[in-house]
Each structure stands twice: as C-alpha cells, then as structure tokens.
Design a protein that fits this description.
Length: 347
C-alpha cells in the first residue's frame, strides 16, 4: 500500500471524480482543485454537447475480430512482452513506464523527457533501423483484416505501436503529432474493454482527471479510426479508472513523408559529437511473465510536464470519417488556414 493509502490509482480517483447536479439546476460544478472550482452554465453545457457531436462524427468504429481471433493475437502480444523482457529488441523499440509499456515497430519517435526542447512540434522520428520491423503476425493477423474490410488501403501502415496497460494505467491527454503522422489514426483493442476519452484535463499533486467532453467505449476486438476533428482538434487520453483489467492496443499509423528525423534537422543530431547518449530501455530482473501486467503497482505519471488542453470552441471543422484520406493529404494547407490553438501532448 502506498503512503497515500492507495495501491491502485483508480481507488483514489473515485473520491475525486468531477460531479454534476441532478440536471434540474442551472449550473454544474467541476472541481479542479481544493481551492478552485469551475462552473458550467447552460450555454457552456451546450457548447460541450456540440463539441461531443463533432468528436463522434469524426470517429469510425467497427467490430471485426472474433473472440477466437483476439485470443490468437493476444498470444502474439504476450510473445512481444516476453521478447522485450528478454532484451531481444533494439534499444528504441521498447519504452517502459509504470503501468504502461510501449513497443515501437517500423517507426519510433522521440517525445517527452527524450526531447532537448519540449513542446508540440518538437517530436522527431528515430533514424531508420533504430526500432524493429513490424512483426509478420501484425501484417498477417491484423493489417490484412483491416485492408480486406475497407478500413485502410493496402500499404498504408508503416508504423505499429503496441501499448500494454496494467490495471490503473493511463496515457495523458495528447494529439498524435500532426507533423509526424498522416491521418487517420487506427487502433485495435485486445484483452479487455476500456474507454477513450476526449477533452480531459490531467492535473497532478494530487492526480485528478477532469470530466471528458466525450467518452467512447472501446470493446475487445473493436477497431477505432480517428480522423478530422477527433484526431486534430481535441485531445484524447486513457484514464486510470478505465483500465480495470489488463488491456493492450495496437496503434497503426502512416508517417508523413516529410516528417523530420533525428538525422536531418533536429538539434539532437546536429553532429555526432553533440548527440546525447542514447536512452536505454529499463530492464527488469524478473523472469519474463506476460501476466505481470495484472500486478498492481503505484502509478507514476509520465515524467513530462502537464500541459492543459484547451477546447477550440470558435473553430469548427467537423470532417466525417468518409473524407479522412483527403484531410490527411491536405494537412499542410489545412494547418496554415485553420489557425488552430489546440494544445497537444505526446505519446
């Protein structure tokens, strides 16, 4: 049991969950801190509802994988975990954090504490070959199914990330880097059901998560496609209370052809002599055990500073899921003309 009295962050958050009134009053309160309260008027509530509709209109979800297919893929994910524990992957393939491990395949990128200069737009792809190739089973069992079901075109995916969450794990509010990844963002969920939340604010010391603008249930075996407003104009996150059992997600993306790399224009690689020593993945001394994801540990948040997302209430582009390919191709023009001010986090 941690010193705070909680071994699982979900228990702590239950007592801090923002509350609403019974729907009959004129205002509802969202407690942000011990001495700070935000009140939402009826007009503000309507704006949030409009925001939620824009988010939902730019999300596509499909149930494609059967329980039997999920079980087979989950065995392969366990093999990835075991290989990572055994040190069989390249240095930048594995990124460990309390209650959440990442496995980069095909392409990996720097973010958070790895950056010399932090902030949206500073992320850089690693040099080619610094992460392992996408495993053949991801192509055969996952990507081909998505292509055959019309979710993505053949040859779209060149980056696959497996996020493996333990109960109470999370990932803070962020927007997938626009200068790194084309749209859409495709993810497939395994092991258990969860939820993807949009427009949350994470606060720390103590940890709190504000009320989401929109909560999307994510079922085991479901495919979620983010484009348009949901991908570009509002942050998304995984809250600790939404990971009740071990959960893994495979995120499939395409890097932009002009995405910057560490060996091109990044200050981190201006010359071999100035390049900082490579980060080494944390190694565990315990025997490789896929079931370790179920063991509760005290959560420590990502080490980067928290950045509060802002809801863009005066700019509305509600692109539907049917035109997300066009939106990806028109990204540069869209970025110049939209004047978006959404604050982003990396993951």
């Amino acid at each position: 049991m941690a010193a705070s009295g909680y071994s699982d962050l979900r228990e702590k958050l239950k007592s801090m969950t923002p509350h609403r009134d019974d729907g009959k009053g004129r205002k509802r309160k969202n407690r942000e801190s011990d001495d700070d309260e935000c009140e939402y008027s009826d007009d503000s509530a309507e704006l949030r509802e409009q925001e939620a509709r824009r988010v939902r209109s730019s999300i596509l979800q499909k149930s494609i994988f059967t329980p039997e297919e999920c079980a087979l893929i989950e065995e392969k994910i366990d093999e990835v975990v075991a290989n990572g524990e055994a040190g069989l992957y390249r240095e930048h393939t594995v990124d460990r954090a309390p209650l959440r491990n990442k496995y980069f395949f095909g392409e990996g990128y720097t973010y958070g504490a790895q950056l010399e200069k932090r902030g949206p737009g500073q992320e850089r792809l690693y040099r080619k070959g610094e992460v392992d190739e996408i495993p053949s089973w991801v192509h055969e069992l996952v990507i081909k199914r998505l292509v055959s079901n019309g979710v993505i075109p053949e040859g779209f995916v060149n980056s696959a990330v497996i996020n493996d969450y333990q109960p109470g794990g999370c990932i803070v509010s962020h927007v997938d880097p626009l200068h790194i990844f084309a749209r859409p963002i495709v993810s497939v969920s395994f092991f258990s059901d969860s939820a993807l939340c949009f427009g949350c604010r994470f606060q720390f010391k103590p940890i709190r998560v504000s009320e989401p603008v929109f909560v999307l249930p994510v079922r085991r075996g479901s495919v979620t496609v983010l484009s348009g407003y949901a991908a570009d104009d509002i942050t998304h996150c995984i809250r600790p209370q939404d990971i009740k059992e071990r959960r893994a997600v495979i995120i499939l993306r395409k890097t932009r052809p002009d995405a910057p790399r560490l060996d091109s224009d990044s200050p981190l690689s201006s010359s071999p002599a100035e390049r900082p020593a490579p980060l080494k993945a944390k190694r565990s001394h315990r025997k490789a055990d896929p079931d370790a994801a179920h063991r509760p540990r005290v959560l420590e948040m990502d080490k980067e500073e928290n950045r509060h997302p802002s809801l863009s209430r005066h700019r509305r582009h509600s692109g539907s899921s049917e035109n997300y390919w066009r939106r990806g191709q028109d990204y540069d023009k869209h970025r110049e003309s939209s004047g978006r001010k959404v604050k982003m986090r990396r993951h």
